[in-house]
Amino acid sequence: MVHERLLTHVRDTAEAILDRLGSDACTHVNIIEVAPYGTEDMPGADHLILELHSGSVDADISADESLSHVRITLSESGRKNIGYALYPLGVSEPDAVVALASHIQDYIMEIGSGRPAPACPNHQHPMMAEAVDGMPVWRCPHDAANYAEPILGPPHTYSS
């Protein structure tokens, strides 16, 4: 069983990502639910999410191998546009944050009519979520030297 501490951590992480992306997309998104999610709940999830990297399983997760993700249900304020983002379990914290940020970014850009979020400084495209030296960052997909910033900002710690 997934402990409340893990679900709270995933919610806090999603909220931090939404704060950053929502300001760029000029929209507000609410988190409706944060819940355990297994690949059997979504056929093809193993192909949709990302290739699982080797990493330690969070200490708050039991040995239930059918549980593969935490699902975050999202909704645009005042509308019925429901979306989902998945936080993979069994990977490193930076890789999980990158996956979650990418899913939330896709949802934000879809409801924001394709407006780049987060916008890449000096370019007309969105930045890309990526783990660099163990830190999840938003970076320019065309020129890594152009710009990069932490996805969650400096106060967040990345420990397994």
Short description:
By secondary structure, the chain is an alpha+beta fold. It is built from three helices and six strands.
Describe this structure in words.
This protein is of the alpha+beta class and 160 residues long. Helix content is 28%, strand content 25%. It contains 3 helices and 6 strands; from the N terminus they run H-E-H-E-E-H-E-E-E. The protein has helices at 4-25, 45-48, 93-111, and strands at 29-38, 67-76, 82-88, 128-132, 135-139, 148-150. A hairpin with a 2-residue loop joins strand 4 (128-132) and strand 5 (135-139). It is globular, with a radius of gyration of 15 Å.
Bin the helical content.
Answer: 25-40%
**Apparent shape:** globular
Number of E-type strands: 6
End-to-end separation in angstroms reads 18 Å
Order of helices and strands: HEHEEHEEE
Strands ordered across the widest β-sheet: 1-2-3
Gyration radius over CA: 15 Å
DSSP strand (E) fraction? Answer: 25-35%
**Number of helical segments with 4 or more residues:** 3
- Class derived from helix and strand content: alpha+beta
Low-confidence spans? 43-64, 155-160
Q: On the 0-100 scale, what is the average pLDDT? A: 77
